[in-house]
Amino acid sequence: MRTPPGLAPESFADALREFEGIVGKNWVFTSDEDLHLYQDAYSPFWGEPEERKASAAVAPHSTEEVQAIMRVANAHKIPIYPISTGRNLGYGGAAPVYSGSVVLDLKRMNRILELNERNATCLVEPGVSYFDLYRHIRANKLKLWIDCPDPGWGSLIGNALERGNGYTLAPYRDHWGAHAGMEVVLPDGDLVRTGMGAMPGAKTWQQFKYGYGPHLDGLFSQSNFGVVTKMGFWMMPEPEAFRSGTVMVYRYDDLFKLVDILAYFENLKVMSATTRVESPLLFGAFKAPPPSPELAALRARHPSREEYESFAAKNDVPYWSVILRFYGSPKVTAAHWEYAQEKFGTIAGAKFKDGDFYEFPLSDAAANQIMDKAPLGIPSLEAFSMGGRTPTNPTPSNGHMWFSPIIPLSGEAVQECEKVFREAFKEWGVNPLGLPLPQLYHERTFFQIYGFPISHDAETNRKNRETFKRMIALAAEHGWGEYRTAPAFMDACADTYSFNNHALRRLQEKLKDAVDPNGILSAGRYGIWPEHLRKTRS
Amino acid sequence: MSKVWYCSTALLLGATLGVPINALPADAASVEKGKQVFQTWCEACHGSGGDRPGTLGLEAKYGGKIPARLEDRKDLTPDFIKLYVRNGFAMMAPFRKTEISDADLAALSAYLTRTRK
Lengths: 538, 117
Known about the structure:
The complex is a heterodimer of chains A (538) and B (117).
Chain A: H1 9-23, E1 28-29, H2 32-35, E2 56-58, H3 63-76, E3 80-83, E4 102-105, E5 112-116, E6 121-124, H4 130-139, E7 144-145, H5 156-161, H6 170-173, E8 179-185, E9 191-193, E10 227-234, E11 236-237, E12 241-249, H7 254-268, E13 275-278, H8 293-300, H9 305-315, E14 320-328, H10 330-344, E15 351-359, H11 364-369, E16 400-403, E17 405-408, H12 411-428, E18 433-440, E19 445-453, H13 458-477, E20 481-482, H14 490-496, H15 499-515
Parallel strand pairs in A: 2-4, 3-4
Antiparallel strand pairs in A: 1-2, 5-6, 6-10, 7-11, 8-9, 8-10, 12-14, 12-15, 13-14, 13-18, 16-19, 17-19, 17-20, 18-19
Helix pairs in contact in A: 1-3, 12-13
Chain B: E1 4-5, H1 28-46, H2 53-62, H3 78-87, H4 102-112
Helix pairs in contact in B: 1-4, 3-4
């Protein structure tokens, strides 16, 4: 039997028996075979001593069981690590940040408690995945859309608490921003509801986010102050139509005006879906076929900007391109696309290409055939083809991890970030995965995304971890910070948010000590450690 | 009145744990249950369509010599299925017993081996 660090085996055995009394023997896992399933499948410490491992897992079915478990854990000072669906792959999966914790597996709490079609809201438990909610909506023919991240098996609650992102309109694709009301079990087993949920019998828990008094919801996001057992969300009403179109420009300096117009449209809500700036010329568009032999040869020569521009004009390969997406009626989406062409048409030589057009509702068969599902609120696992086996990639990777600093929404910022990291990679002799894609997830910033493959070779992983940490520090030197990260880098990222001698972290630690005096909940998550473990911070 | 939907349990899964893989006969009920398990947990990667990473990967691996869709395979065995479900492979992460219970796994095996030769 594994035992949490510092805990007497007898005390742990007593606690496990008490856990079994709460959830039943079948839902307490202690064997190596079962606990293997709680390792991070995409761990950058694969096979190394630092690999995070659970000492046990316990899977409650109700809020009351979660409360009872937390009381037992408090009594025995057992470190507890809650997961929702445990599919946060690339960001830790089902493994605890603090090795030896007992994983509180909430997957069995999978009830969709309320779906309000008229107000377009829902209330769910942590085990409900995007697939679950989508299937339920389809089965009941509701005119509601979900906004899903790349992994459709993710939890609505888990992804929102991680401040993950999706692909539809701005109010919904910020998953944390789209939440309305929470129910939380505190480390001592007490139960609180936030927002209007604090009023018994409130009629607007999922409609009015703020309730009365201090808005404490943020304490439970990217943190370790409570176990969220219910959460409400605003949903998107099914639009009548969807339309997309691509804007293509051919000179390097067009980037600046391209991004300015994009921001203008985003903030006016003319075009409000996730998109990214691509460079078919420099890197190839996302999911594009391999470059022509001529373009491949050109890239290999590392030519001047002028040579690139000459090639772009002669071969009709855009320097930059952006896919725009519109929601509304067929007429409204056509008008917005026409308006977009008018504004982007002020960039000399800009070209446009019509994209997809759909009217809703779609049949199941039609929805299944769509290749780019996420902008239509259809969950999939398509993103996991990145790094997977293909005819040109016969050796699939063992996962991935992402470095995604937040940079300003401007062409100048994209240019500077790309240059800083390109030069750093050259100096460090490294070559991270894929393309530097400035992605418009949030309304006012870009995410500049770099990927790393996960290997089962320790030396490869060590080098990638080292590069990742250097990137965190280099980004911070330029004022760019990570929005979210894997457990291996949580302390390093937290260190960069250091204004006034880490005043924010000191405040978080004061709150942690007050809310969780025994320091049992999710030690180390997002760099917040309980007092007795602060010296172990990496 | 607003249209409010209350639901008790969203998922069809949640069967009893601890059933040995080979204890469940491959009868029609278990095959049907296994089909539901497949559709819930496997289809998004291993189904039909150009955006299924598992199917795309197996197409690249076998080049058509073996069907890329798992539901078309006639060579799968319960042990083989268990190995992949509980260990994963490459980009595929393993599935915990709160996701695919042992009973669900047995049903899934019944479904994927229903036409085994």
